[in-house]
Amino acid sequence: MKVLFFEDLARDPQATLREIFAFLDVNPIVSIDTSEVRNRSGAPRSKLLAAAVNDPRLRRIARSLLPAHVVARLGSKATELNTGAKPDLDDRSRAYLLKHTLQDRRRLAKLLGRPLAWLV
Q: Which terminus of the chain, N or C, has fewer Cβ atoms within 10 Å?
């Protein structure tokens, strides 16, 4: 089993990918373009637009009128433009999670032999 941290991927994607490739015993000397953000998370600016983009009936109609790659590109662009900032976790929820997961987070840090930045 290989455990990875998002923080490492965000800090140095190429090194993290080399580590994954080496673990999988595939050529680690492969250049992967990581400059494009995919599946960015955040709150939709417009719930109506988000629902429309994800509506299978509208996608089916769009695919009957346009080539599939155009529909995919338009859907991706609409989602990208409609994705706003991630909502902050409120203080009460943060305190609850920190309190109720403290022992698990400590055990995980010990098991991995690595301090966890999100242990606090």
A: N
